[in-house]
Every structure is written in C-alpha cells, then in structure tokens.
Write a structure and sequence with these properties.
alpha/beta, TIM Barrel, 2 domains, 31% helix
Length: 329
C-alpha cells in the first residue's frame, strides 16, 4: 500500500521509457522505443502499477501494455487514428450517441495510465467539451431524449476528476427520470487503488440510479491485494463490477492466461464480461491476434471451465447497433 494520496501518485507517474526500464531493472539500453510513438501518446505509468511488473523481464505482460516498443512504428493501412469513427457519433461536444439507449460522455482527457493499445490514443480531447457550458449542452441532449436509459462516463478516465466534480455530475444525472443507470469505465481501481475511498463511494452511491463500474484488466498479474481491497469497497455497497479485456499478442493470448484471469476476477466478485478483439488504431499492429486464434482460445476455455468464467468475444464496428459477438459456427 502506498502512503501517498491518490492525487500525488497520479501526479508522480513514470513519464519516460528510460525511467520505466530502470524501475523494472532492465536498464535504459535494454529495449529500443518509438520516439514517434511517445510524441503522439506520451508514456504514463503509476508506480503502484509498475511495482507489479516482473523485474528484469522485457516480456512482462504488464510492461508490454505500457512500453512504447519500436513496433509502434509499423504502418498498416488497416490501422487508423479513429478506428471506430467516433467523430461521426458526436451529438454534443464530447457526447457520443452510438447505441440507442445509452450515451457516452468523454468526461476528461486525463488517464491514470497510458495503455499503448488504447483506441483513443489519437483522440482530439481538446474538442471534447469539458467546460461548464459544454456539460450543460450535454445534459440538455440527455434530458431531451427519453430513449436514453444509461449514461456512460468514460474518457480519459472519469475517476481522474475531483470528487466535487463527480458529485456535481451525479447529482444532475440523478435528476433525470428516464436515466436508470450510470456506468463508469475506469482503470483507476486497478492502477491506483487508493483512488477508491469513502468519499468516492459516497459519490457513486448518490441518488437512486444504479451505479455500474467496468474495469479494464488484461492479465491476472494486475490484480493485487490493494486492488482487491478497492473493489470490495464497491461490491460491499451493492455495486455491480464488470471487466473487459483486450486480447493481445504476448500479453494474454493463451488459454491458461485467460482462465487464470477469469478465476481471479470471479474470486473477487468481478464479472469477466467482454474479451475484445483489438481495435485497429495506429501504432498497435504488434498486439493483433487474429479472429481464428481468438475463437480457438474461447472454445478451449468453454471446454475447460464454467460458462460464467468465459467472457463474450466481441469486436466493435462503427455503425452497428451493438458490439458484434464473434460467430462460432
């Protein structure tokens, strides 16, 4: 457990490839890195997350998620800056309405950690409406559409916001009768567990709307005692906690790894909900796992463990009314 506040841990994140390598005892010369990659998407890794990496292992599955390998320079025409064409889904600055009954609010451009596979690594956050007037415009749209039953707070990471800002957002959303659920997508409980405190739990439980938390965990090594303690603070208050992972080469593309992750999630009352095929965003070709291999992995999981331990294998395609389940026929 880190004695520093979550805000200090957030501010003091590792910001360079050399410092990250030094932290895991590899030395700055151990791996080449993409200069262009870090110009486009800077390195940011909380020490609390880096502490879980295996020392002197250049292929550690946690390191591989956040280190800007030279592979990021590989160009592939299938990989673009906006693979989900989110620019076409904006109905207000920073408010996306892709699916009928829910909207997604880009709450902030700040993240606790910069995951190199992030499909928003090139996202124009400067245009995403973080001012008070922009938020009022978003609220106006949500209030005007009775078909919207769920508001998703995403980003960036919404838990990088101050508790007072989150309280304001929750209070205003709680006043909209047709909203049934508020969903938060966050890596904070994983990478800086100290973010989950009594004040935040009180905020998330404001009003009568159901609060759902979706985590992003790709490997069992990300789960430690501090994270488990953070999650228990949420589940003990009746919050539903789900997990979605991205299937990535060299990180979790083995049956044993996926099973171990699902077992660890269920042990801690986290539902292993989605396993995403990689969104083809520029700079991530080295992570790609093909659909054929993905199907094989899920089939092997189904043959070995209970169904509730097997996440849904999905991909997201712009223009579709939901995530697309991978067909096993």
């Amino acid at each position: 457990m880190h004695s520093q506040s979550w805000q200090i841990q957030f501010a003091n994140a590792i910001r360079s490839p050399a410092h990250l390598l030094e932290h895991v005892e590899l030395g700055a010369e151990a791996l080449g890195y993409s200069e262009n990659g870090i110009k486009q998407f800077p390195v940011r890794v909380p020490v609390a997350f880096a502490d879980r990496m295996q020392r002197q292992n250049p292929n550690d599955p946690l390191l591989r998620q956040v280190f800007p390998y030279l592979d990021e320079d590989i160009e592939d025409g299938r990989f673009t800056h906006d693979p989900l064409n989110e620019a076409a889904s904006h109905v207000a600055p920073g408010l996306l309405h892709k699916y009928e009954d829910r909207v997604l609010n880009i709450s902030t451009g700040a993240c606790a950690i910069h995951c190199r596979y992030c499909f928003r690594r090139h996202f124009p956050y400067q245009d995403s409406g973080f001012s008070h007037s922009d938020w009022q415009e978003k609220l106006g749209y949500i209030k005007s559409n009775n078909a919207i039953h769920e508001v998703i707070l995403s980003g960036g990471d919404p838990l990088s916001l101050a508790d007072s800002k989150l309280q304001e957002m929750f209070d205003q959303l709680n006043q909209i009768n047709h909203i049934k659920r508020i969903r938060i997508h966050s890596r904070f409980p994983v990478v800086i567990p100290d973010r989950i405190n009594k004040e935040l739990i009180k905020t998330l439980n404001r009003g009568k709307k159901e609060c759902i938390v979706v985590l992003h965990i790709n490997h069992a090594n990300e789960i430690n005692d501090a994270m488990i303690k953070a999650i228990k603070q949420m589940t003990s208050q009746g919050m539903l906690v789900f997990n979605q992972s991205v299937l990535m080469k060299g990180i979790n593309n083995s049956t044993e790894t996926l099973i171990k992750l699902s077992e660890k999630l269920i042990e801690n009352q986290i539902v292993p909900y989605y396993l995403h095929l990689l969104d083809p965003v520029s700079g991530t070709t080295h992570y790609e796992v093909g659909e054929t291999e993905a199907k094989k992995l899920i089939k092997e999981m189904k043959n070995r463990v209970s169904g509730y331990l097997v996440p849904k294998l999905v991909r997201e395609i712009h223009g579709q009314k939901s995530k697309i389940s991978i067909n096993f026929r």
